[in-house]
Amino acid sequence: MNSVHGLLAASVISIQNSCFIYPACQNCFSRLMLDSRRFNCLKCGCTGEAKDASYRYRLSLKIADTNDLFDITVFGSCLDPFFGVTAENLQRYIQDLNQLSGETNTESSTRALVQAVETCFIGKRFIFGV
Questions:
Q1: CB neighbours of 30 closer than 8 A, spacing ≥ 6?
Q2: Which of 129, 119, 126, 130 is nearest to 10 (CA)?
Q3: How many domains in the chain?
């Protein structure tokens, strides 16, 4: 699954969603189902306490080379250098920020994160392994 079949130099046109971090199963990397106290992986059946859930990056982009448009999704730790922290640490930082500010609606922190990601990626050219 991790083999690269080719390289594509392309520019980021847009960010396709605002959810850059997801709770991920440590066994199969699938999205976990979380409730207030527990997590459950629907794919492999892994369970545990919600506070112990791991997080991964998932960045969906629309990109363009000189000829075509592509929708791609970039997963995992290859995004750590762009965000400056692991997905797990960023998730903790966002949770702590929301708690300190007393935010019950996380819309403002989500909007700020989306704006920062758009500034860092849109209009920039990258080489993608596809």
A1: 24, 41, 42, 43, 44
A2: 126
A3: 1
Instruction: Examine residue 2 and state whether it is found in any structural domain, yes or no.
Output: no
State which residues form the domain around 35. 7-129
Is this structure's pTM higher than 0.85? Answer: no
3-state secondary structure the chain: CCCCCCEEEEEEEEECCCCCEEEECCCCCCEEEECCCEEEECCCCCEEEHHHCEEEEEEEEEEECCCCEEEEEEEHHHHHHHHCCCHHHHHHHHHHHHHHHCCCCCHHHHHHHHHHHHHHHECCEEEEEC
pLDDT (0 to 100) of residue 29: 93
CATH number at residue 86: 2.40.50.140
User: What is the per-residue pLDDT across 50-66, written as a single tens digit (0 to 9) for each?
Assistant: 989 999 999 999 999 99
